[in-house]
Structures are given as structure tokens and as C-alpha cells.
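Q: Joint fold for the lines below.
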Amino acid sequence: MLLRLLFLLLLVIGPQAGAWADDGYRLWLKYDQLPEAGLRKEWQAQTNSIRIDQNVGPTLQTAAHELQLGLQGLLGRPVPVGAAPGGKGHLRLRVAPDAALGQEGYRISYQNGGLEITGSTETAVLYGCFALLRQVQTGQRPAGLRLSSQPRIRYRLLNHWDNPNGTVERGYAGSSIWKWQELPEVLDPRYQDYARANASIGLNGVVLNNVNASARYLTPEYLRKVAAVAGVLRPYGQRVYLSVLWAAPKVIGGLKTSDPLEPQVQAWWKARTDEIYKTIPDFGGFLVKANSEGEPGPQDYSRTHADGANMLARALGQHDGIVMWRAFVYKAGSGDRFRQAYEEFQPLDGQFADKVLVQVKNGPIDFQAREPFHPLFGAMPRTPLVLEVQLTQEYLGFATHAVYLGPLIKECLEADTHRQGPGSTVAKVVDGTLEKHSLSGIAGVANIGSDRNWTGHPVGQANWYAFGRLAWDHTLRSEDLAREWTRMTLTREPAAVAAILPLLNQSRAIYVRYTTPLGLHHIMGQSLHYGPEPWLSQSARPDWTSVYYHKADAQGLGFDRTATGSDALALYAPGARHLWANPATCPPDYLLWFHHVGWGQPLSTGRTLWDELTTRYYSGTDSVRWMQQQWELAKPALDPQLYADVAARLRVQHREAQWWRDACVLYFQEFARRPLPPTLTPPARPLAEIKELVDIYQLR
Amino acid sequence: MLLRLLFLLLLVIGPQAGAWADDGYRLWLKYDQLPEAGLRKEWQAQTNSIRIDQNVGPTLQTAAHELQLGLQGLLGRPVPVGAAPGGKGHLRLRVAPDAALGQEGYRISYQNGGLEITGSTETAVLYGCFALLRQVQTGQRPAGLRLSSQPRIRYRLLNHWDNPNGTVERGYAGSSIWKWQELPEVLDPRYQDYARANASIGLNGVVLNNVNASARYLTPEYLRKVAAVAGVLRPYGQRVYLSVLWAAPKVIGGLKTSDPLEPQVQAWWKARTDEIYKTIPDFGGFLVKANSEGEPGPQDYSRTHADGANMLARALGQHDGIVMWRAFVYKAGSGDRFRQAYEEFQPLDGQFADKVLVQVKNGPIDFQAREPFHPLFGAMPRTPLVLEVQLTQEYLGFATHAVYLGPLIKECLEADTHRQGPGSTVAKVVDGTLEKHSLSGIAGVANIGSDRNWTGHPVGQANWYAFGRLAWDHTLRSEDLAREWTRMTLTREPAAVAAILPLLNQSRAIYVRYTTPLGLHHIMGQSLHYGPEPWLSQSARPDWTSVYYHKADAQGLGFDRTATGSDALALYAPGARHLWANPATCPPDYLLWFHHVGWGQPLSTGRTLWDELTTRYYSGTDSVRWMQQQWELAKPALDPQLYADVAARLRVQHREAQWWRDACVLYFQEFARRPLPPTLTPPARPLAEIKELVDIYQLR
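A: Joint structure:
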């Protein structure tokens, strides 16, 4: 009878199978029952109930609910929530000011025989709850658990490049998750799940809209919509921020100017800002892309970036908000683009108001697969700098290439600026410890869209995850985060994890190899930024072409940025510069970033430039095969739908790796006029065929 | 013990609750267990197993699998599929040529005591399986079941206006479901669910890409992708079609011309077409938007639409494919836009090749909330005409207004062209019976996107559903389809159904009232086609403004299309013309389509034009309140998430109905210079405020 009932139950469930397949929507928050009965028992013994004080606020209620949801799933039995003190076998959530933990840090420990999660604020306890769930989910034991953590960076934000019409600039995972047309009345359940995901990894804010900003968001009509989103995000500790259009006073304010020194412009922004805070009391502040790529800005009125940023800071006044002013600027025709943001911003150091942070991309060009760290890091000691990294894979294969970005982000964070002696890492600039700033920030350009699994490529989830965790604590190891994510999201089966981890950890290096080895950069398909187009020589601006960057000629390859060339190297502190200055000792990964190297020049690897270059294109491509094999090894432990999805994407990736390899090898060969090393099989197709293929992807 | 086990089971299921809420993904294919035990037993007794012949093809296997899935869910017990003959208590699927049923018709009947679904082809049996499931799902009894049906129209297609970059022109439900970047390797599971949905309502084909077409799709690179989609759709009886860019021979063929009379152009299309059929043997054919809204076409070479269409027909040669050539053309500055498609296409009647169908929108302007039927219907007796209707609500409130389109589609189908005497309905023109055509077609511009529930607004699903069912059998009643859809998708609880049905059935009339009553048309926000903008008087073309259409002046309102005006009325047969010719007898719904009427003119309703106009704007807006109340009545029987979603959208709809009402009443009052009828409360806001609001939605 019992068995028959079960059978019927399963049958009734059966037809809804679609809802049960692992479609990726739950991200890493998979509260499936732990397979180890013993481990479940151990945790059950410590979590007979969740105890909170009476009359707590919405964030602590959210924390208790999330914990309940997670523990019930992981441990397979009910966990009531009650307003009662803690005690042996019960789990208590408690807000108590603790200077050692700051505003957002949490502590998990035993108090009077019972587990307790404490923090100075409700949000801190929420972070602690997710930390505890992570312990359970990754199979840690409860005995002797003692854990405390607090974020090293204060503003930990996702930047959405989402447009009001629902498209996402450089988005590859469907449309925007924000449904502006339907807001404020319709609250997509997805908003809440998004907030949960961000909170679970320690993020605390969201810039909702594209830096190429619409003025719509500053109107009352849209502020009501923004407020509705903010209302859903608030209990999860996520504040909302807006990108602003510099010309807004003209476009929607009816003024004739946007000059930051004009009193009427200042008054307009002040009034707008007050209005925003009336609607959204915990509004986070403004992100600004000004005088960059055609966007308006204070320079339209012969004012500086500092004039603009400081005016907005004054508009914020006593409100608890900040201005993040982007340093991503480059003027056409003013020499090496590598130098331009530095030249424009470094002289402004010391001129920015207290609430202003300058937001700097990880590298000097634009989110290439590998860049040297941006020379502004360490060079503006009197200005807090936000590190901006890109999670959406604009230049890294969209949603069809598996590229785990942990290593890229860490590479930048750990780079040593040498500005205050050895050990002056980018991380210490960004977290404020090097230059004693109280404000600090980090921003990830979101890779999130309406796709069911949020990120298109399932591995994209790992990038969202690793970014959040590193934003919280940049000392975490990229490999450890890959392991955490894999075990929470994909499988805890040891052999499968062992197969997947090297795939993730090496994926970025492999991508670099088959697209831009040895320090090549910006040789991708124009506008689209997809596929290879090293032959691109005509564009609206010279620094939008490929030849501008690779400078291939009969002699050799690479951009001379030493004193004999653009001398961009001089922008770095001597200690940092030293690493790259000598072509003989420059690490091969950065060689062509800084040197024009002869085709026949022997490198430190023992091969000539040409042989090394082509060998890397081939070995990078072959490595995608290796990634496929690793994924196959994990197959028995994976959800079939997820397995098939990634396996198919790896097939695309291999096809496109060959595309890159053949394109670049054949194109550069026209300059090098050398045969491939004998171990490599020449491409089977002519370059003309590849050029046609690239053109197809750029058709209307 | 049993109860405890159940409790635990439910707990384990609990945390995945998100997957259980009714998120709309399953559409009307909800195979939840029938609540009536008796009814389940009756059906169980007839469906102990599903029997098919050995060695059947993929479509019959698909049919058996779908039937199994559905019956197991609805009846709550396993239904094995076996290769065996039928028999009492078993359900047999059988392919047997049957001239009475045609190629796609099915019959469900008892044979030798057992239920049997038969048809001439596997696809026919598949349609029969969905028909049987519909019987079960809507609570019909099996006793004495005897049912047969065949489609009245041969080509029943969805047209996707989806672009290669993933955007959807006039799409309001997220991004395109086609992931071109990931194809052909990655096959989103959604493709299959899409095909199921189409097959379940009797559609048999899909134009994958926007009529503003990219040439990409004709390249080998993209044909591989198209073939991959076709492979998923094929077992569900769905053929794929492509929209083609007329200039493709130049853009991707390297030719200097696209002149259809040039032998090299003809040869290019022939070779391309042969290549397509090599890749996709059951390819359906081409859809063409030529010399329309800036698209290239044969007129660029002084050739006619017939020259162009016939050239493509010749390229198709012996392949089983068709050309659908769109009649949606209007030249700037050549008189009343209402007349232009007629003037260009009617003279070509008789000149089109056998494989060509001309595709005509339901009305002469462009998918307005109500239009008179297109004058081309009945006026091209020697040419099969495809009826094109728009399911995506470009002019009908996007995804925030509940507008059930069954009445709109039926209104057009039942319109009488009088071309061969009374009863010469558009339906009979379209299904080919009036003019004895063997080819016939109907196309719905899809309202489908990546949103979880496919259509953004849940009611949008009803439009997809009703279109498919009407495409199969245009004699079905709109109200019956609304009932079918509601009971399959939302609830079978009688009181709730009784509350929802009038909401659906009256929704389109209500939308007309608060946006474009009495035959007003094309007065919406420019470019965006959202919100009111009757004051729009400047645009790139006069017929893109609003004043072109409403012609408000001090005397009155409306477009005189009688002999004293543009005389567009003359394009209709006398019998049809008669209905609209006299302003005194013209039905109020069409009045301003054809007449310029004085503000003080008394109408058949007993009110003056001004009073009737304003009364309709107000009563239409009030009716949205009534829709909200109806929805509340149904609440107890609805899934909470679905209830909340629609309730919120109705709040948006009411807010925007007020927006339309206030905008139009205040604007037209500037001409009428009359007070509102005393029962109506004047808008609380000035027109200037509304104009600002409209501007906001048109900002970058």
C-alpha cells in the first residue's frame, strides 16, 4: 500500500518533469537534501529550530526564512522559526553591535551550547545565514564551528548595462530582467530571486541601468518603478543606484545647459536628488559615464571631470549616497589609447569631493582577455578608486565559451603597483588600506539576463559567484571559489569535481591562447566584438581597428610602449614598469602589450616569436578538446540537461577556437612569411573563407 | 508512518517550491490530475495502454509519447506504450490513408471496442492525439466519443519578427527564443516545448526570422543553424520557413544586382534554394517584405512584385515550397495610405505563379485595434491570399493590457467582401473555397519571447491558442476558444470560469473604447506605438503622424474616405461599401474610418459625436475596473502567482487607460471646444503634463 501510494505520487509528479530538470534557475542556492545521513543528523541536532527576537525588521525575517528554507531542504525535515532565546540544539539569529565586525561582518559561534549567528546589523546576520548554509551545503561538520568574516570593500556592486527597452548592452543571456514597462505594479518574482543570489555572495548594491544612460530614470514616472524594485531588493541588503545621463537637466529639466558650474543646473540636480531620496530613502547614489564614447559630460562646457563629479556630490549633500565617476575615457587621435585615461584623470587626483569615487576598469584598454593592470591604480592616492571588472563576456566569447573569470579578477587584484613600495597591490588600493580611504568599491558588469539559467552559459554563474565572494574578501583563492561553486551548483561527487576544477581554473588561460596569446589584444570582430578580425584596418576611429593594436609588419608584431614607442610604460611606478620593460625578461603573457618583437626573435620559451605564437594558437585550440574530455569525465555525476547544455557549448567553443586559430595564423603569416612549425597542421581553409565567415556575423 | 513519510516527502519537495508555482511555462498543456475520480476511472478504462505499429516514424513516436505524458498526468496512473494491435480498453494510433480526412485530418472513434486515432499521415494522428487530450483535459467523457476534424487552411504559420541579435521587433515578452549564437550545437529545450505548443493547436509551420530580414540566414553558416531548429520541430509537424532579404544576391552573393529578370540573379536564387533543400529537405519556403518601409525589392529595378515573387517561385522549382509575398506596402505621398496596397497589388492579380501566395494584413493600415477588412480580400480572385494577423500587441498595449484577440480575428474572417454576392466572407477567400484555390494560408505574427510564460501577459497565451485553433478551423467560435483556453490553462472551477470569460470576450472592445473609439485609428505614440499621441503632427512621413488619420478640426473629426474625400470606400464591392457609405447608418465602430463628422452631429446612439466620443473614453476606462473586479471574483480558484501577475497587469492597464482617456479627451477638446457631458468628471491633469509623460517613454 505504501509503495503503491509512493508510485502514484511519483507518477503525478512525473509529467511535470520539466520543472524538475536542473534548468539552472536556482544557481548555487540548491537546497537539495544532503546525501550523507550522518552529516544530516549532526546538523539536525544543532538546528531544531531557528530563534529570533520579537519585532525584528524585514531583513532578519528574510534571513530566518532563507535559513529555514535551506535547512529544511538540506536536512530533510521541518525547522520551525520562533521568537525565543537560543539554547542547546537551537540556532539563534541575533543583532548586537560589535565594533570588531563592523556594519556588515558576521560571527557564527556556539553560545551557551547553541549555535548563534550575530552581527551589528540585520544585514550582517543575513550574510551570516548564507555563510552557514554554505557550510552545510558544502558538507562541513557543525562540531566546533567558529567563523567570522567581514567585507574588505564597502561598496560591492553589480553594474547592469540594461536599457529601458529591455535590451542589455553587451548582454548574452536574453533580455533585461527589469521589466520597466510593467513596473511599478508588476513585480516579477525573479527580482526577489536575484536579490537572494546577490546577498548570498555578499554583494550589497545594484546599478540598475546602462552607463550609456537614459534620462528616463530621473523622472517621477520612472522613479516610482525604481522604488518598486528597491522595495524588493531592500530586505536582502541590496541598495539601488542609477547611472545618470549628464545632459539630463537639458533633456528632461528644460534647462538650456548642463554646465556643472551653473547654479540652475546645480539646483536642478539638488532637487532631483532630494526627490529620489524621498522616494527611495536608502538610494545608493550615481554612476556616471561622461565625455566618453560620445556621451555628454562637463567637458562640453570646458569643465573637468572633477567639476562634474563634485557637483553631483554636493547634490547628494547629507544623503547617504556616493558618486562613482568612470575613468573609461579616450579621446580620438591623441596618441596611444593606453595612456589616455591616465592623462585625463591622474592630474585630477586630490580635486574630488569626499563622496566621489573614480571607477577604473581593470586594464587600460577595454576588458580584454588579459590586460596589464590599469596604470591609474596607485597613481591617484588621494582618490578612492572603484575597480570595475566585466562579468559579461563581451570580449571573451559571449555565452558560448566557458571562461571562469576568477583568475582574471585575482590577477588584477594581486598585481603590484609598487606605488608605495613592493606589496602595493591593486587590492590594497581598491580596499582603501594602502591609501587610508574610508570609502572603497568594486563593480562587476553583470552577465545576467532573462535566460532561465540567468547567465546563458552555465559557467557564467561561476563568474557572478566568484565576483561576489571576491568583492567581499579579495584574499580568497580563485581555485577555492571554483571548488565552492562547483560543489554547490554542479556536483559534490569527488571524481567529477576533480575533473571539472582544472577545466574551470585553466579556462581563461586557454581562451587567451586561442584568441590573443603573448599579449595580443583588441583584434576581434568590429562592433560585435565576436570572432577574430585582426585584419580590421578601417573604422570610425583608428583605435577601433585591430591593426592599431597589433602593429604587424614584415619585421614583427606588437605595440612598442617603451620609451622608443608610446612610452605608456612610463605611466607605471618603476617597480612595476621593470617587470615589463625588457623584452628579454618580460613575461610572455605581456610581451606584445609592450614590445614590437621580430618574427624570428627567440623568446624565453626557447621558440621564436612566430613559432611560439602559432604553437599557442594551436595548443589553445587543442585545449578545448581537453576541456571537453574533462566534462565527459564528470558526466555520470551531472544532471543530464546541464551536462548536455555545457557539452554542446564546448562544441561551439571548439569550432570557434579553430576559427580564431585559423584566422590569426593565416593573417599574421602574411607578414611573417614563415612556415608553421613542422608539428602543426596548416589550416585547411584559406583566409578569404574565414573573412567571409566573420562578415556574416556582422550583417544586419 | 505513512503520513509521516508523506510529510517528509513534501518537506523535501517544499524548498523547490519555485518550480511548483504556476509560472505559465506549460501554457495550456497542463496535464495535472483530473479532480473527478469518476471521470478518471472512465478514461482509465479506455486507456490501459497506447498501441502503435512497429517501425513507425518519429512523429508517431512523438504522438504516442505526448499522449502517454498527458494521460499519465491527467489520469494519475501509468500508461504503457506498446507495439501491438488495439482492442477493448486500449488506445490505438494508426496511420491509414483516408481521402475524407485529407493529409492532416484525424478521426477519433471506437473500433472493435477500443478507441482509435487515425489519419492519413503521422502528423494527422499527432493532431488527433492533442485533440483527445483536449477532450480529457476539459472534462469530456469517453463514452460514445466520435470526433473528426481536418484543417480548412493548408499553411497555418507563426511569423516570428525575430532578429539575429536576439531582439524581437515589436516583441514584448523578452528576447527571441532562437539562440542563433549557440546554434547549431546547443538545442535549447524550449525549442521542443514550442513545437509541442504549436502542434497542439494545429499550426504546421514557422517563419523563423523577421520580415525585415537579414541575409545571414541564406549563408551555409546559418543554414546549419536553421537545419538544427528544423530538426527539433519536424517530429511535431512544424516546417520551417525563412524571410528573405531581397538584396541577398548583392549582400552575400557578390552580384552587382538583385534584378529578378537578370539570369545571374535567378541562377543565384536557384542555387541557394537547392542548397537549402539539401540541408532541410522539408523546408517550407520564403516570406518576402519587398519595397516596403525601406526594404529593397524588385521595384528597385523597375520590376513588379509579380516579377519578384515569380522568380522566387521558379527558384523553388520542383521543391515542395511556397512564396508568401507581403502586400504591406505604402508609398509616401501618394494619397490615402488606405488605398495604396490595393492600388499596387490588385492590378497584378492573375500574374503570380502557382507557388505564390500574397500575404495581406487583416486591415488596410497596420494592425490597429479595429480596422475594416483589407479591400484586397475578394479583389484578387486569381491569387491565393494569406491572412496576416498580429498576435504581438504592437498597437494593443504591449504585454500590459489584457486583450483577447479572438473577437478581432473572427471579425475579420466573418467580414463579408460581397465580391461574389453576399456570404463572400474573408474566411472563404482565405481558405480558398470562394475562388477555388488549392493553396491557402494564414499567418499570425508571434507574441512569443524568452519570458518564462512565453507571452509576457498571461492572456497573450490565449491569443496564440485562439489563433492556432482558428487557423485550423475558422468556424470555431471565439467565445468557445476562450472557454477552452481558460479551462485548460487557468481553472475549471465554474464560478471562476464564469467570471473570466466575459473579461476575455469583452477585453478587445474595451481596449478600443479607451484608445480609439468610433473608428479612430493610428493616434498612438510615435515609433514606440505605445501610449496616446493624437497631437503628433511631424514625422519623417505624413502618414506616420496622428493628425493624418484623425483630421480633427474646428468642425469635426474623422477621415472622409467617401467620394468627397479619398474615396477609399470605392475599393470595396458595392455590397460591402454600402455598410459604411452613409454616415447616418455606418456602424459607430467604423464611423471615423470613413467620415469626417461634425462635433455636434447626433449619432445613431442618440448622443452627439463629442458626447459619444468622450463617453466611450470614460466608459472604456471604467470597464478596466470591471475587468479587475471580474478577476478578483476568480481569485479563489487561481494559482496565487498567476492571480497576482494578472492583477498587477490590470492595475497598469487601468492607469494607462486613464492616460489614453485624459490625453484624447483633452486634446480633441481643443478642437471641439465643448464641455464634457455633465456625468463625466474632467481629467484632473492638464494636457501638457500628459504630453511630458508620453515624451518620457520616447527618450533614449
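Q: Anything notable?
A: Chain B has three domains: 28-149, 155-489, 512-696. The domain at 28-149 of chain B is CATH 3.30.379.10 (Chitobiase; domain 2).
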